[in-house]
Amino acid sequence: MSLKKTALVLVCVLALVTVYTALTAGGSMDIALGDDAISFSGVRDYVREIRYEDILSARLVELSDPGTAVGGFSSGKYRCGTWESPELGAIEAFITVKCETCVLLRLTNGESFIFNYNDSSSTKGVYELLLRNL
């Protein structure tokens, strides 16, 4: 193969790897506990704020399968948006797939919202902090 063809193949492969990485990585997850609300942002420009007064209950759950995306998306690492879960029904999700421990919020409008961090201990830690604000 000529040097030009080799260079062209290399450029194409790098472009494909870059596109694949951008599509599957999806960004980062940011969760912030404020004075009046918990905020979620980061993954594909996802932004959501839930006021503490709108939370009826919070509990830890193990979620092995978030289900099917109804109005959300799935990347290699994350599940965000509206999902139909075989375990929990209709949920709004902001989760990483490598951790099954999640915080399930039941809201005053009847909605269920689920979130987690990259690992179980961090998820449990934010759950404990959240309980102090409820």
Beta strands, count: 10
The domain count comes to 1
The average pLDDT is 80
Helix content: 25-40%
For the sheet with most strands, the description reads: 7 strands, mixed
CATH topology: PH-domain like
Radius of gyration, CA atoms, in whole angstroms:
18 Å
Summing up helix and strand content along with how strands pair, one would put the structural category as alpha+beta
The first-to-last residue Cα distance is 66 Å
Please identify the top-level CATH class: Mainly Beta
Quaternary organisation: single chain
Low-pLDDT ranges: 5-25
**Which architecture would the CATH scheme give at its second level?**
Roll
Give the overall shape: globular
Number of helices: 2
Q: N-to-C SSE series? A: HEEEEEEEEEEH
Strand percent estimate: 35-45%
Tag the structure with descriptive keywords.
single chain, 134 residues, alpha+beta, PH-domain like, seven-stranded mixed β-sheet, three-stranded antiparallel β-sheet, 2 helices
Notes on the structure:
The protein has helices spanning 3-25, 120-133, and strands spanning 30-33, 37-41, 47-51, 55-62, 68-69, 73-74, 78-85, 89-96, 101-107, 112-115. The protein has a single domain, classed as PH-domain like, CATH 2.30.29. The protein has 134 residues and is an alpha+beta fold. It is built from two helices and ten strands, in the order αββββββββββα.
Write the layout of secondary structure elements.
Layout: H1 3-25, E1 30-33, E2 37-41, E3 47-51, E4 55-62, E5 68-69, E6 73-74, E7 78-85, E8 89-96, E9 101-107, E10 112-115, H2 120-133
Parallel strand pairs: 8-10
Antiparallel strand pairs: 1-2, 2-3, 4-9, 5-7, 6-7, 7-8, 9-10
